[in-house]
Amino acid sequence: MSFLHQDVPLTWYLLVSAVLFSLGVVGFLIKRNIITVFMSIELMLNAVNLSFVTFAYQWHEVKGQIFVFFVMMVAAAEAAVGLAIIIAVFRVRATLAVDRINLMKL
Amino acid sequence: MHLILFFLFAGFCLAGAINLLLQTHPINSALSLIVVMTSLAVLYLLLGAEFLAIAQIIVYAGAVMVLFTFVVMLLNAGREERTLGSRAAARVGFPAVVVLLAVLATIILRAQGLASAHLGVGLTNDPNGSNLVVLSQVLFHELLLPFELTSVLILIAILGAVAIARAEGSKVDGSERTAPK
Hints:
The complex is a heterodimer of chains A (106) and B (181).
Chain A lengths: L7 E2 H21 L3 H25 L4 H31 L13
Helix pairs in contact in A: 1-2, 2-3
Chain B lengths: L1 H21 L3 H21 L3 H25 L12 H24 L7 E2 L12 H11 L1 H22 L4 H4 L8
Helix pairs in contact in B: 1-2, 2-3
């Protein structure tokens, strides 16, 4: 029963954040659909937000949480513009596979 | 109680992220990302950030993911074709990810002061019960100018999204979209 009342070390939150960020990087590398690549970027942003909130808790400082708020606003704007770009790309190339969008590739 | 909630929702979070990678259909990946974001909101709640937990659900799991699923359905995105990807991703990318994770984990585990900081004493920083008052005071007094600038940023993003996503030939084919002379 003492196991249930044990405290959670903040290190574990940071480890969850690091693993989420790495999963986002892996998704960015292996996914071949441009929408899913974009979702991996959102996953990385969320992982960084989690570590910001963890440090804000540790230092008892509210500015870390406000920084997360601004990250959320910028991420929302980025999602709107990015998805508009995806729609424009789909209209021109008629594909969502990143392998086929290779006009600027050497 | 904190331990149970932490393990439950951190597990949901990581399982959703892994499921995002394994699914081949974009709509399944989008739904897994919603699971990740909602679980992260619970973790924020455990860390005493009530405002951010609600904002995470409304902004991320609500607005952003609705936008994602809307685009997936609008473009009728089918099953993604598995290719080998670029060779640079395989040769440089994955070792770099492993090194990144190892370095991050080493730094986190060896950091001084983090090991002694434990969670579970109280849900919030403030003994009064909520840090919403402190947060709004900082946000609307000290950081009022950056806060107002984000509204300009959002406005520019809306205009940019409309300008980019608008069809080039809409003046020709869409008869109802033609501007009245």
